[in-house]
Amino acid sequence: MPRIVTMAFVLTLALLAATPGMTAQAEWPAYRGNVKSRIYHNSGCKYFNCKACTVPLASPQEARAKGFRPCKVCGG
Length: 76
Hints:
The structure is a single chain. The protein has helices spanning about 1-20, 25, 60-65, and strands spanning about 30-35, 40, 55, 70. By secondary structure, it is α+β, with helices and mostly antiparallel strands. It has a 4-stranded mixed β-sheet with strand order 3-1-2-4.
């Protein structure tokens, strides 16, 4: 069974690599904003994947321009 899972994972990675326009940056934003608190987190923050962190942001400048403030834990 592990061999099947590994093979499926490898095939998925190959398909993503072969798909034009699909990049790691498109899949995983560097920052996310929390729509409730209006706080943004960087991808290394423990709060990055919270339920309300649904706004993908490319940079701290974009986050501030959209009205978000940096997280006090990760610094945004």
